[in-house]
Amino acid sequence: MATQDIIARSATTTSASSIRQVEEVAKLIDVSKCIGCKACQVACSEWNDLRDDVGQNHGTYDNPADLTADSWTLMRFTEHENAVGDLEWLIRKDGCMHCAEPGCLKACPSPGAIVQHANGIVDFNQDHCIGCGYCITGCPFNIPRISQKDSKAYKCTLCSDRVSVGLEPACVKTCPTGAITFGTKEDMKHHAEERIVDLKSRGYENAGLYDPAGVGGTHVMYVLHHADKPALYNDLPNDPAVSPMVSLWKGITKPLSLMAMGAAVLAGFFHYVRVGPNRADEEDEAHHEAAVEQVKKKSNDASVKTFDPNQR
Amino acid sequence: MTNTWTDIRNANLILVMGGNAAEAHPCGFKWVTEAKAHNKARLIVVDPRYTRTASVSDYYAPIRTGSDIAFLGGLINYLIANDKIQHEYVRNYTDVSFIVNEGFTFEDGLFSGYNAEKRTYSDKSTWSYEKGADGFAKVDPTLEHPRCVFQLMKKHYSRYTPEVASNICGMPQDRMLKIWEEIAETSQPGKTMTILYALGWTQHSIGAQIIRTAAMVQLLLGNIGLPGGGVNALRGHSNIQGLTDLGLLSNLLPGYMTLAGDAEQDFNAYIAKRALKPLRPGQMSYWQNYGKFHVSLMKAWYADVATAENNWCYDYLPKLDVPGAGYDVLKMFDMMSRGEVRGYFCQGFNPIASLPDKNRVVAAMAKLKWLVIMDPLATETSEFWRNAGEFNNVDTASIQTEVFRLPTTCFAEEDGSLVNSSRWLQWHWKGAEAPGEARTDVAIMSELFLMLRERYRNEGGVYPDPILSLNWPYKIAHEPSPEELAKEFNGYAVKDVTDATGAVVAKAGQQLSGFAQLKDDGSTASGCWIFCGSWTEQGNQMARRDNSDPYGVGQNLGWAWAWPMNRRILYNRASADPSGKPWGPDKKLVWWNGKNWGGADVPDFKPDSAPEAGMNPFIMNPEGVARFFAVDKMAEGPFPEHYEPFETPIGVNPMHPKNDKVISSPVARVLPTVWESFGKADKFPYAATTYRLTEHFHFWTKHCRLNAIIQPEQFVEIGEVLAQEKGIAAGDKVRVSSKRGYIVAVAVVTKRIKPLQVNGQTVHQIGIPLHWGFSGLTRHGYLTNTLVPFVGDGNTQTPESKSFLVNVEKA
């Protein structure tokens, strides 16, 4: 089916359709209104029919402990003591940011496995996913995860199925405090401005909108009390940008790389003909495991709870 | 709630204390965010822990669990000393001018009339007003009489200086003063503060008095009856408000009528004692109508059998043979432990998880001959006999109790009404058919009743009349419909009902439109007088879903139906000044328009009583005004006083360091064998508190996969300082023990719990959430209430689950 609203497609050079007049959408997460109730996590699982494992408590409120192929969003809790010694419990809903310049899409080698819709949603098409994990490398926010069930990459779709029929994403619908809102990106920016005025009136001088230019802006934005220090919010990148390696891959080196890939395929073919089928060695397996069990590295700040699921 | 969920948006200041609204009431909490976003409201949180609510607050201060009266008493002193009170409101709408009897004293932590042997105030006669020759209470409008309520209150709380309060609460004095200062600003007539609380205040041996102190603060500030004001209890179950409304406590009848005591065999004396006459001229004293409510209830229950000649079947009602809270659950389980209870119906209740001292409760249940469980879920209680290893280490072979499990529908599998915290009766419709053999609670209880009645009919028995005569008019006798029951609670005309002029206002058989139509001559029937108006001739008012808000003040009178009479804010006459004008332009609720009272809410007042008539807003009190001086209503005394929890980390009441009789509440009932189950700080040095998490609902949702995923495993919260002392890291397993037992859980090490300086020593607090057990889809765990002491509030017997002592070790 021709959707006519895909404006970018991974590993594809044909020009995108551009006839439709589609407004860009955005989800605005007001961190200052979020109580970390996790209703959005549950709504996401319900709408998308996801059931993660019942895990363990690792000594924090973060459960599940990290994003997985079955948990596309979660709350990250940070205890922060501010300059005057007052405690703040910063609770950030983590998930795909739907970048205007998506690093995942740029990095993806499989044609059409990652697409960008005209409304800004970046969506994975698992039919085309080869499970290479390059999207993880390409993502400045460390979001996609490879499923252990089918070895394909998954992440928040911004409920593209709901949005395409005029509904808000499931997390937005369920949020009890109105911390998550959804609309055109323009409207969300206006709403954010009002919120920032309110936050400044409450003493948060550096309140602001997180819509980072390094990735061309995002279609999931945050209102932060401390917009000058995004990293306070459980390592939200201060200046996210697509990795230079990915840019390099997409730019100058791509034709060369493709040639090299072609050569490798040929070499592989001759290897098969002459030697027989290849067996995966342990090192390859370990590498694959690392992509499957992406565990975000945290700083040594005591307020940031670190855990390693493999250690338990 | 005195006010209503949607009304929170009208507040200028929100104090969350004794609760954690964002955590436990995330949906209702939207009105707090609304008040902040569009009413520039500020949010202050006072809690032992920096909570989820605190995470979105403007200001937070820590407090030692169980010390709330010291904080609020200090605030009363601060407001009076700094003249931050709403003078016109306080003078006109409260009892400050009432003169108290001469013999009333308060010495060494005790009020007059204490009986040390019985641990109770056996003589409360001095806790009363001085009366004039006209029978009315004497008042001194100048407030200068040394025994007027204002002077007594001022003196009582003058002891609660900032130093004293801070010393008891462990709250830094600068934080305390900053909060008091901000609260004091709402004494301006056009400004209101709302107080949101929950079990963090009720679950103390002094819980009821904590809440009273909060009410006193709100009265001094003139914040009761106004939009955005009030003292608002956020109920823990969606229908627990309905439970108390319908009198499902052993000492109550529906609509907050009370069961007679053993000594009250005389019907007229029973009514007269409750139909209180006004204590001041021109006051309404609405309980004067008690007889009408009571007779209408008896007509609903006994129909034609109830007649004036037999005192409307008064003799059918049981008479309570114990004082106070009657057969509360602590008393029942204590009796059970002594083999005095043969069988137990456990309906929608998981006592081994919910009651304190789980090991004591399990031992008590093992003495039962039989136990019936009515529940949608396989609760821990239904398996109390099962050895679940360390989580429930019982000797199954020695437990002979026969357990019957009757699966019931859950609320989503039946039609009916739920009463929420706002007193709204909201009709709901079945969302799904119940699985398997589940049946409604109504069907199970009805069938049981019919079988019992049949046996009494056939076989006789001792005094079977109350059962044989019970009115049972339902079309399907074994399964009365929710509609039939709702109509009965509302009430109907038994005969034609006339008004004062003789005009017929309701024909025989018609639904009544409100409790003003109720009569004590047998012409009306009503199963719960406060619900009268919920299902009228106009149909089911609870099913209304019109959310329009014509005055723009969030009252939404067309949404469902609130008792009493669809009034959304209680005592709302107080939202206008004595002349009938609203106190402030954005606090307009009801006002006098020259002919009657009206406005955005239904007036909680006589609608045609002109301001000049001098009727006061607190129509349920015989005084007509609100009480600072609780007369004889409370077990502990007319003015709340700070007493330590029964397990105190400091071992002394700093208010009365020399009197060891008043370290803890001198009147809370301590059952035999419970004294020795209290621990002391030498072995159990840390102050613990229990609570719920937003990811779970009590012990239900651990049976749901999605809830289990987002909060999978039992944990306890420990401050960083204590964790460091003990060598405990986040994620370690720790053993938390009290004198009564232990649990093992994962340690969440946090900056959100700080050590407090209390009475010259450091007090560490431990936070213990309670959702896990030995059944369900979460990782199995211990029942948290294993740790909690078996003692309750002196008035309500609500267990002291929020303040007790534990030790913590690395497991």
From TrEMBL, chain A:
Q: Where is this region: Disordered?
A: 281-312
Using the UniProt record, give the first listed, main subcellular location: membrane
Q: Could you name the Gene Ontology cellular component terms for this entry?
A: plasma membrane
Cofactor note text: Binds 4 [4Fe-4S] clusters per subunit.
User: What are the binding positions for [4Fe-4S] cluster 4 in this chain?
Assistant: 108, 129, 132, 135
Q: Which residues participate in [4Fe-4S] cluster 2 binding?
A: 44, 156, 159, 171
Gene3D superfamilies registered for this protein in UniProt: 3.30.70.20, Single helix bin
Q: Which residues bind [4Fe-4S] cluster 3?
A: 96, 99, 104, 139
Biased composition of type Basic and acidic residues is found at: 285-300
Annotated positions binding [4Fe-4S] cluster 1:
34, 37, 40, 175
Per UniProt, residues of the 4Fe-4S ferredoxin-type domain are: 25-53, 87-119, 120-149
Q: Which InterPro entries match?
A: 4Fe4S_Fe-S-bd, 4Fe4S_Fe_S_CS, FDH_Electron_Transfer_Unit, Formate_DH_bsu_Proteobacteria, Formate_DH_C_sf, Formate_DH_Fe-S_su, Formate_DH_TM
A GO BP entry: cellular respiration
GO MF entries: 4 iron, 4 sulfur cluster binding; metal ion binding
Q: What cofactor does this one take?
A: [4Fe-4S] cluster
Query: Where does the protein end up?
Result: Cell membrane
Q: Which UniProt keywords are listed?
A: 4Fe-4S, Cell membrane, Electron transport, Iron, Iron-sulfur, Membrane, Metal-binding, Repeat, Transmembrane, Transport
* Summary of the function given for this chain in its UniProt record: The beta chain is an electron transfer unit containing 4 cysteine clusters involved in the formation of iron-sulfur centers.
Query: This protein is called what?
Result: Formate dehydrogenase iron-sulfur subunit
From TrEMBL, chain B:
Protein name as it appears in the record: Formate dehydrogenase major subunit
Q: Which residues cross the membrane?
A: none
Q: Where in the cell is it found?
A: Periplasm
Q: Name one GO molecular function term.
A: formate dehydrogenase (cytochrome-c-553) activity
Q: Which organism is it from?
A: Pseudomonas duriflava
Q: Name the UniProt key words of this record, in alphabetical order.
A: 4Fe-4S, Iron, Iron-sulfur, Metal-binding, Oxidoreductase, Periplasm, Selenocysteine, Signal
GO cellular component term, pick one = periplasmic space
GO process annotations (BP): anaerobic respiration
Q: Which PANTHER family match?
A: FORMATE DEHYDROGENASE-O MAJOR SUBUNIT (PTHR43598:SF1), TUNGSTEN-CONTAINING FORMYLMETHANOFURAN DEHYDROGENASE 2 SUBUNIT B (PTHR43598)
Q: Where does it mainly reside?
A: periplasm
| Coiled coil segments of this chain | none
Query: Which family, according to the similarity comment?
Result: Belongs to the prokaryotic molybdopterin-containing oxidoreductase family.
NCBIfam families of this UniProt entry?
Answer: formate-DH-alph
* Species classification: Bacteria, Pseudomonadati, Pseudomonadota, Gammaproteobacteria, Pseudomonadales
Molybdopterin oxidoreductase domain location, by residue? 1-381
Q: Which Pfam families match?
A: Molybdopterin, Molydop_binding
State the needed cofactors, names only.
Answer: [4Fe-4S] cluster
UniProt-listed Gene3D superfamilies: 2.40.40.20, 3.40.50.740, Dimethylsulfoxide Reductase, domain 2
Q: Where is the Molybdopterin dinucleotide-binding domain?
A: 688-804
